[in-house]
Amino acid sequence: MKRIAAVGMATLALAAIAVPAQAAKPAPPAPPRPKCVAHAVSYEVSGTLTTAGTLTGNGDGTYSGSLTVHVTKTDDHAKADKGTTRSYTLDHAKVSFGHGVDKSAPAANSRANLKGTITAEPKKCGAFTPTITIEKVELHAARK
Q1: Is residue 33 part of a domain?
Q2: Under a CB-based contact definition with an 8 Å cutoff, are residues 114 and 89 in contact?
Q3: What is the pLDDT of residue 88?
Q4: Cα 70 from Cα 82, distance rounded (Å)
Q5: How far is it, in rounded angstroms, from Cα 58 to Cα 64?
Q6: CA 54/CA 105 separation, integer angstroms
Q7: Which structural domain, as residue segments, surrounds residue 130?
Q8: CATH number where 73 lies
Q9: How many domains would you assign to the chain?
Q10: pTM: predicted TM-score of the whole model, two decimal places
Q11: Is 22 within the bounds of a domain?
C-alpha cells in the first residue's frame, strides 16, 4: 500500500515539473485619456441690469437677445467677471420676469440672475477661449 502511494506521489511530482505553469495574461493597456478636452461647467452671475438690448420672444416660450449686467456676485467659474460690466447674448434662454418688470424692455437697475455654462480646460493646457452659454435668466424689479 505504501508503495502505491509512493509511486503515485512520484508520478504527480513528475507531472508538475513536466507541465509548465500558464502565465497570467496581462491586462490590456488603458486607452490614452485626452488631457486638454474642453468641458462645460456651471456659470452663475447676478447683479444689476445696466441696459437691456432687445429681448425677443420665441415661439417656444424662450427669449433671444442681449443683456448688459454689472456683475456683483459669481460662482467659482465666473469669478473673473465679478465687479465688471458684461454683455450677455441670449439664444433661446428661459427668462422669468418678476412683478413689475416689463417683458419687452426691462428697466435699468433691475436685478438680474443668470445661469448657464462655460467651457473650461485643465489649467496646464495652452491658449483657450471659453464659450459662455446662458440658459436661464431671472429679472426682478429694482429695490426701492
Answers
A1: no
A2: no
A3: 93
A4: 8
A5: 7
A6: 7
A7: 39-140
A8: 2.40.50
A9: 1
A10: 0.70
A11: no
pLDDT value at residue 64: 92
Q: Looking at this protein, which amino acid is placed at residue 144? A: K
- CA-to-CA distance for 88 and 69, rounded, in angstroms? 8
Burial class of residue 64 in the structure, from the number of CB atoms within 10 Å of its CB (0-12 exposed, 13-18 middle, 19+ buried): middle
Tell me the CA distances in angstroms from 114 to 11, 72, 130, 134, one per residue in order.
Answer: 81, 12, 17, 7
| pLDDT value of position 74 | 96
> Who contacts 116 (Cβ-Cβ below 8 Å, separation ≥6)?
43, 44, 93, 132, 133, 134, 135, 136
List, run by run, the mean pLDDT of 10-residue segments along the chain (144 residues): 61 57 69 76 95 84 93 94 94 92 84 94 83 94 82
- What's the start-to-end Cα distance of the chain, in Å? 107
Closest of 84, 75, 85, 82 to residue 118, by C-alpha: 75
CA 74 vs CA 53, 90, 109, 124, 138: distances in Å = 22, 18, 18, 24, 15
